[in-house]
Design goal:
By secondary structure, the protein is mainly β. It is built from no helices and 33 strands. The relative contact order is 0.19.
């Protein structure tokens, strides 16, 4: 297997125990519908690992499903991954409301990945723990859908009222509880803990607005689709960040060893969102500017396989990267949906593992972005990157990017400076299959209408409500040029990367 993790070091923040991030002690997940080929139905898989050096006790159960049933107990520790194989009947099917929620609980923090694998149709997602889920989401899919666009809402609390507004796109038809819904219409439903609601449609569901009375989880993507040109198709899936955790700054790295380009969807949370993309292609500057007119609206772009870029917006948004359909036997890869973590949500270290290919092993990549002055400090599996490593500088920033191949198995990423944060994506490709997802991230509510709070250095809270976390150095200077001094400190000497 090969995974591509792109890593961006931007803000130096000392992480504190119990921070809002993708590591957790309790998760509720599900799997959306995938396409079965040749009457061969592969089982979904859950991969669980931890950064802890202790033995961590993990339980995986299906509290509301007895037939079939999941009841697994095991331990993991740093460097060890456990795979749980899930019965196919836990997959959701078309539009349905069921109780297929899968509970993962542990006595210390773990990392969880869901892999929805069928023959030549595979993708995975980074699961988010229940304590970081939100009450507002916009979904993402790809169109033309080929089969269906789809998303799933996961109940975390009993008596949760969920309001779903379908987007203003043509050919949306949803059959649910004896009613037919089309674009711009609302679906209202009450769900309970472990409820799983899947909605699907031939029409594009990107920008579906989900509002709930209590936090829920949301997974989104496609049953199986073509991205770009070609004939082969693949499943698309990601577990979505709530709107409160969306950002304004992103760094993009192209899928390695391809020449067909990457597709991107930029989804807005507010009307009239202005977006600027600046980067480099083969040493030549590249810029692109556009406006997303409405909240939940999106702009789709196709960019070169050699583009390394910085993306900035004036309102919080989400950015998704699509690996495109392979066009020849020499270009082995296929569609995959990847959430690009906001720079505001980079964390300091990650432990992750690679999933398995339906026909053998993936070719995996570690894609990274670091401060051009700190490339020597990046640590992969306890070792610095080789001196022969190639880096690409992103113009207008202090960022340098590149990628390395990694082997199948469990890996860790960190920096010699423990206050240096990293953004990362894991990607694998093979004949007619690909997968991709972030290896981890913070999930701070950086744009949730916050109220200023008393500051403790390094508390990982946006104390001054400026959309940034611990951005001051506590050095008696106005580091972020907002007219305030030491109002939101990191608690350690801080280096801010990605801006001059």
């Amino acid at each position: 297997m090969t995974n591509l993790i792109w890593v961006v070091l931007l803000v130096l923040v000392p992480l504190v125990h119990g921070a809002l991030d993708s590591k957790g002690k309790r998760f509720i997940i599900t799997f959306m519908e995938n396409k079965i080929l040749n009457n061969t139905d592969y089982k979904p898989e859950i991969f669980i690992t931890t950064a802890s050096t202790n033995l961590v006790h993990v339980n995986v159960t299906s509290p509301k499903s007895q037939h079939p049933q999941i009841n697994a107990q095991f331990t993991v520790t740093r460097g060890i991954v456990h795979r749980v194989v899930v019965d196919q009947d836990f997959r959701l099917n078309q539009t349905e409301l069921s109780t297929k929620g899968i509970l993962i609980s542990a006595d210390e923090e773990v990392v969880v990945y869901g892999v929805n694998r069928e023959l030549w149709s595979d993708d995975g997602y980074l699961a988010l723990p229940t304590d970081v889920l939100g009450k507002e989401y916009y979904t993402v899919s790809y169109s033309p859908s080929y089969y269906y666009c789809e998303f799933a809402v996961i109940g975390v609390h009993n008596h949760t009222r969920v309001h779903i507004k379908l987007p203003n796109h043509p050919n949306i038809t949803v059959h649910f509880r004896g009613h037919v819904y089309h674009e711009n219409q609302w679906i209202n439903v009450t769900i309970n803990r472990f409820s799983t609601l899947e909605i699907n449609s031939v029409g594009d569901l990107t920008g579906t607005h989900i509002i709930s009375s209590k936090p829920v989880g949301v997974i989104s993507g496609n049953k199986k689709t073509i991205v770009g040109h070609g004939k082969s198709r693949d499943h698309l899936t990601e577990m979505l960040l709530p709107v409160q955790a969306w950002g304004k700054n992103f760094a993009t790295v192209p899928i390695p060893d391809r020449h067909v380009g990457d597709n991107f969807r930029f989804v807005a949370s507010k009307d009239n969102t202005h977006v600027s993309v600046s980067g480099v292609i083969d040493g030549k500057p590249f810029t692109d500017n556009f406006v997303i007119q409405h909240a939940g609206g999106y702009v789709q772009k196709h960019y070169s396989s050699k583009l390394y870029s910085h993306v900035n917006s004036d309102q919080p948004m989400a950015v998704y990267q699509f690996s495109v359909t392979q066009t020849s036997h020499t270009d082995q890869a296929d569609p995959s949906l990847i959430t690009i973590p906001p720079i505001e949500q980079y964390a300091a270290d990650y432990t992750f593992t690679t999933p398995e290919y339906s026909q053998g092993q993936y070719h995996n990549y570690f894609m990274f972005v670091v401060d051009s002055n700190q490339t020597a400090g990046l640590i992969l599996d306890g070792k610095s990157l080789p001196q022969s490593q190639t880096y690409v500088h992103i113009p207008g920033t202090n960022l340098a990017a590149g990628y390395v191949n990694i082997t199948a198995g469990t890996h860790s990423v960190s920096h010699l400076n423990p206050n240096t944060v990293i953004g990362g994506i894991l990607f694998g490709k093979a004949g007619l299959e690909s997968y991709g997802f972030p290896v981890g991230l913070l999930t701070q509510p950086v744009n949730s209408g916050c109220q200023a709070k008393a500051m403790t250095p390094g508390d990982e809270v946006d104390n001054d409500c400026d959309g940034e976390v611990d951005e001051e150095d506590c050095d008696g200077k106005d580091n972020d040029s907002d007219g305030k001094i030491d109002e939101d400190c990191s608690g350690a000497p801080l280096i801010v990367i990605g801006r001059k």
